[in-house]
Design brief:
heterodimer; A: 114 residues; mainly beta; four-stranded antiparallel sheet; 11 strands; 45% strand; B: 109 residues; six-stranded mixed sheet; five-stranded antiparallel sheet
Chain lengths: 114, 109
């Protein structure tokens, strides 16, 4: 069982380019999340999905979009990348959004926008 | 606003005990999590507290006081592999995790 996989592992991107970060989980979890992690700051929620077919905005959604066509996949798209989107991006999943449900994290994607 | 405070960095000696504190002010409370994150890796789950008191799990224990908005993570018999960042996170009224910036723990021989 792989858990959560993310691709690519790292990417250098020119500003203005479109980029999709992929996330796949095989735990049949209902909820999935995208976070960014920047030095000196806590993880910040970008978008989430409570179940397939639904998505919601987190703390820092501007410049990002997501889709949840099925249970396993939750891609994050940067429509036109900007240097402030340079960060480490983590995808996570949990069985539900209820109290006590642990979020499990993918290995992360390190994105640099020049 | 919502706020989670933890010390930025702590240093401890191999074999010793260390306590990492976390204070929080959030809109609602549905539990508090501690995660461990080694450099360059993903966060991994350590503990969850929703009721006041101490939860013990091997060398690691976590304490919660909801009235004080306070938690701590206690690590005993420190090993070199415990060198990592420790992240405190609170599940708020919207069932979203609010994260602290993390405490980098350095273990010296």
């Amino acid at each position: 069982i792989a858990g959560i996989t993310q691709a690519p592992t790292s990417q250098i991107l020119a500003a203005g380019r479109r980029m999709t970060l992929r996330c796949t989980q095989d735990m049949r979890h209902n909820a999935m999340y995208w976070y960014r992690q920047d030095l000196g700051l806590g993880l910040r929620l970008i978008h989430y999905s409570n179940t397939a077919g639904t998505t919601g905005k987190g703390e820092v959604p501007d410049g990002y979009s997501v889709s949840r066509a099925n249970t396993d996949d939750f891609p994050l798209t940067l429509a036109s990348a900007v240097p402030s989107q340079t960060s480490v991006y983590f995808c996570a999943s949990s069985d539900s959004t209820s109290s006590g449900d642990t979020q499990y994290f993918g290995p992360g994607t390190r994105l640099t926008v020049l | 606003g919502q706020n989670i405070d933890q010390p930025t960095e702590m240093t401890a000696t191999e074999g010793a005990i260390v306590q990492i504190n976390c204070t929080y002010q959030t809109s609602g409370f549905n539990g508090l999590f501690w995660y461990q994150q080694h450099a360059g890796e993903a966060p991994t789950f350590l503990s969850y507290n929703v009721l006041d008191g101490l939860e013990e799990k091997g060398r690691f224990s976590s304490f919660l006081s909801r009235s004080k908005g306070y938690s701590y993570l206690l690590l005993k018999e420190l090993q070199m592999k415990d060198s990592a960042s420790y992240l405190c996170a609170v599940l708020d009224s919207n069932y979203q995790l609010i994260w602290g910036a993390g405490t980098k723990l350095i273990i010296k021989p």
